[in-house]
Amino acid sequence: MRTRDCPVVETPDFLLAALERANDAVVIIDSDLHVSYFNAAAELIWRLDRTEVLGRHVSCLGLEELRQQSVATPASDQIGGDDAIQDRCSEIRIERRDGSRIRAALSLSHVEAGGQHRTIAFVRDITREIERRERMALLTLVADRTNRAVIVTDRDLKIIYTNAAFAGLFGYSIGEVSGRQAIDLLVGRHTDRRTLARLRHWIGEERGGEEEILAYDKNGDEIWISANVKAFRDGRGRVKYTFALLTDISETKQLRSLQQLILSALADEIPITEIADRLCRRVEEIAPDVVSSLLHIDAGGLVHPLGGPSLPEDYSRALDGVAIGPDVGSCGSAAFYGKPVLATDIDTDPRWQPYKTRPLEVGLHACWSTPIKSKDGRVIGTFAFYFRESRPPSRWHERIVDACVHLGALAIERWEARAQIARLAYYDMLTGLPNRARLRDLIAEAIRTCHPGKHVALAFLDVDNFKDVNDTLGHSAGDELLVELAQRLRAQIQPHDMLGRLGGDEFVIVLPNRDAGEAALVASRITESLVVPLQIGTRQVPMSASMGISIYPDNATDIDALIQQADAAMYHAKRAGRSTYRFFSADMNRLAEQRLAHSSALRSAIANDALKLHYQPQIRTSDGAIHGVEALARWRDPVLGEVSPAKFIPLAEECGLIEQIGHWSIREACRQMAEWREAGLDIPCVSVNLSPINFQNPSLASVVTGILADHGLPPEMLMLEVTEGVILNERSVAIETMNALRKLGVGLSLDDFGTGYSSLSRLAHLPIRELKIDRSFVRDVEADPSARAIVTAVVRVGQSLQLTVVAEGVETDGQRDLLAELGCDVIQGFLYAPALSAAAFGRWLLDHSAKRASAMLRRVGRCLARPPAGSPPHVSTTKGLG
Ligand SMILES: Nc1nc2c(ncn2[C@@H]2O[C@@H]3COP(=O)(O)O[C@H]4[C@@H](O)[C@H](n5cnc6c(=O)[nH]c(N)nc65)O[C@@H]4COP(=O)(O)O[C@H]3[C@H]2O)c(=O)[nH]1
C-alpha cells in the first residue's frame, strides 16, 4: 500500500469546505483504488485520521464492498459520459481498527471528470436507526400476536400504529387508519361527552387509566370496548405518543345489562313469571339462535313453567305438574340429576320421546338444560336453551347460561321466600288452611259475591275437650287431631265453600249462598263425620266438635259481628252437651256478655283476694276420727252473689286464671293448716283440688316446696287432688310433676275415680296415695246393684294397691254403713258436714271431738256395766260414730 499527498483533488475551496462540514462521511477513491479524499465525518466513522488513509489503497478502510464497487466501474456509456453520476446505495458493516462495529448506509457515486474516473462514497452511521427499526419489528411481531387491539397515536391522537388484532376487531388495516384521529375514527359523535372527557383525563394522568366505551367498527356495528390508555412523554413532560390497549367487552357488557334488567325487575317487585319472560326475551336478543325457558321445580319435584315466551303455549302448559325423573326430557332429567343435560337431537334422544312432538313441530331440535340450585343446594329450577339445529352450546351460550342460572336462582329463591312469608302470614302452618287474616278476606269475598236474596252461613267450630287431649296426650297428639279434623271437615263441604283455622282448636266454615236449613245439613254431616275416634298410636281418641252458626245478612252484615255471633252460638252448643250445633239467636249475645262479665269479675276477685276456702271433714270409718279436710273454693261476688266452683273453675280454666287459683288454694290451705296447728287443732291432712292444667306446669313441685317451707308444714300434711284426665298420657309433663310431688312427700289423691277411663294397669304405676269414689256411685250405692258393684271393685283395687279409699258425697247413715261394710277407709259428705268456713270448721271439729269422746265414754261405760264372763269390753268401729 502506498501513500499519496493530500489533497489530491483540485476542488474549489468552497466545495471542500462544504464537504468538510457534511454530516455524512465522504471518501473519494481514484481509479487506481487509492483514497484521495477523506473528510472529517469519515474520520469520525472510521476513527482514523485522514493522514492515515489518504493515498493508501481503499482496502485500508476494511470495506470489501467499497473495494468491489469501486472496481466495478461502470462503462462511460453506462454512466452517461463526462460528469455523469450514478448513485448506488447499500447497507454495510464497518469494522474499525479498535474492533468496534457499526452499520452504515453506503451510497456510491461514480464520477468521470477530465478523463479521470473517481468513485465518491457517502457513508452514514445508521447503527441506531437499524437497531430502532429492528426493535419496532420485534414489537410489531409481539403486538400482532396478542388478541387485544393496540393503537399508538402521536400527541394529536393521530394513529401511527395499529396491530393485527385491531384490524380483526375493527376491520381497518393500518394503511386505512394511519394518520386519522383515533377518537373520531372509533367513537365518532355517538359517545357521550363525559366518557370522552374521562378518556382525555386518563391520557393526562401519569399512570393512565381504563374506560369502557361504545365504539364502532368499519361497518358501523357497535363494539363495547375497554380502553386502557397511557401517554408517553418527552423529557419535558409533553405527551409524545399515546398507547391504548382495547379489549372487546361486548359479551360482558351484554351479560351485565341482562343482569341489570333482572335485578331492577326484582327490585321493582315484578311478578316472577314476568321476570322469567323478560329474562328469556333478553337472552334471545343476545343469542338470537336460541329459544330459552325457565322452569320452577317445587319441593315435591314437580315442574312449573315460569317463562318461555318463544315456546308454544300448549307445550308449556303440558309441562306444568310433570314430575322430574331420569328420563324426563332435558329439564326433568337435569333437575333430577342436578347436572346439565344436553340432548343434541330431540328426535332420537330416548329422554325426549314422550315430549318431542311439539318442540319438533316448531323447529326446535336440540335442548340443553342446566339445573338452578338454591344456596342450600336444592334444585329449584332449570334454565334451558332450545336450538333450531342439532348442536351443542357455544362458549357464548355457556356464558349466558352461567349468568341466567345465577339470576334464575336469585329470582326463584326470592319468590319462594316471599311465598313462604305469604303462607306464614295467611295460612296456618299445621293444617295448611287459611288463617284468621285470610279468612276475613274470604268471608268478605263471600259476602261481596253473595247473590241477592241469598245467604252466607258462617259456622264457628270448637273441638270438644281439646285441652284434655293436649294436656294429657301431649301436643303432637293434639296436632294430629287438628290435622285429621281439618281433613274430615274439608270432606264434608263443597269445593267453593271455605274452611279456615282461627287458631287453637277453633275453625270457621263459610258456606256461600247457603241458608240456615242447608247450613244445618252441613253441620249434622260434620258431627257425624267426627263420630269415628281418631287412632293415635294404640289409643283411640274420641273426637267431636261444637258448632255455632250465624247467617248473613239475617244475623249481621259485618264480618266481626258474624264471627262473634257464631262464637256465642258455639258456646251454647257446648253447654248443650257438646258434639252438636246451635244457630245464633239474639239472647245468646246476652249470655256471651254475661260470660265476659263473669270472667272479669273472677279476675278482680283473684286480684282482691276475694276467693275463700271452705273445709269439709273426712272421717275414718274405722274409728270415726278425723282423717283430713278437703279445701273447696268459694266465691261470693257482690253483684253475682255466690258462684259455684262448678261454674267458676271451668271459667277460670277457659280464661287462663286456673294457674293462679291453684297456687292460691295451696297457699291458703297451708296457711290455714298452720294456723289450726298453732291453735292446737289436730287435723292430719288437707286436700287441695287442682285442675289438670296445674299439673302441666313443671314448677309445681318447687312452688309447693316453697309454700310448705313458708308455713313450716310437713309434706305429708298436704294432699293434692287430681282428676283422671291428668293421667291419660303416661309420658305427659303431668306424670313427671306428680312424681316430683310424691318425692317431696306430698300426697296425691285421684278424685272422681270411676268416671273416667283410666286403665287399672296404669293406676298401679301412678304415684298416688288415695282413691276417691265419685259422688254419683255413692248416691246410688244402696239402691243400684251396679253402683254397689263399682264401689266394691274400686275398694278392692284400692286395697290391693294399698291406697286409702275415700267415698265422697255421703249423705245418709245407710250409705255410710254400707260403704264401711264394703271396706271404704274414709267417708266425706253432708252426713258429717258440708264445706265450712275455717272458723265454722274449727267449731265443728271441737264439737265432733267432744261428741266422739262422750260416745266412746258411754260405750265404754255400757260395756263395763254388763261384762259377760271372760269377755273383753267391745267397741263398735262402724256404727254410731260422730
Ligand atoms: N250433693 C252433695 N255434694 C257434696 C256432698 N259432700 C260434698 N259435696 C260437694 O261435692 C264437691 C266435692 O268436690 P269435688 O268432687 O272435688 O268437686 C269440686 C272440685 O272439682 C271443684 N273445686 C272446688 N274447689 C276447687 C278448687 O279450689 N280448685 C279446683 N281446681 N277445683 C275446685 O269444684 C267441684 C265442686 O265443688 P263444690 O261445689 O264445692 O262441691 C264439692 C262439695 O261441696 C254431699 O254429701 N252431697
From TrEMBL:
Residues 454-586 form the GGDEF domain. InterPro entries: Biofilm_reg_signaling (IPR052155), Diguanyl_cyclase/Pdiesterase (IPR012226), EAL_dom (IPR001633), EAL_sf (IPR035919), GAF (IPR003018), GAF-like_dom_sf (IPR029016), GGDEF_dom (IPR000160), Nucleotide_cyclase (IPR029787). One of its GO terms (biological process) is cellular response to nitric oxide. Residues 595-849 form the EAL domain. It comes from the Bacteria. PROSITE patterns: EAL, GGDEF, PAC, PAS. Residues 11-56, 135-183 form the PAS domain. It catalyses: 3',3'-c-di-GMP + H2O = 5'-phosphoguanylyl(3'->5')guanosine + H(+). One of its GO terms (molecular function) is cyclic-guanylate-specific phosphodiesterase activity. Residues 207-261 form the PAC domain. This is EAL domain-containing protein. The lineage of its organism: Bacteria, Pseudomonadati, Pseudomonadota, Alphaproteobacteria, Hyphomicrobiales.
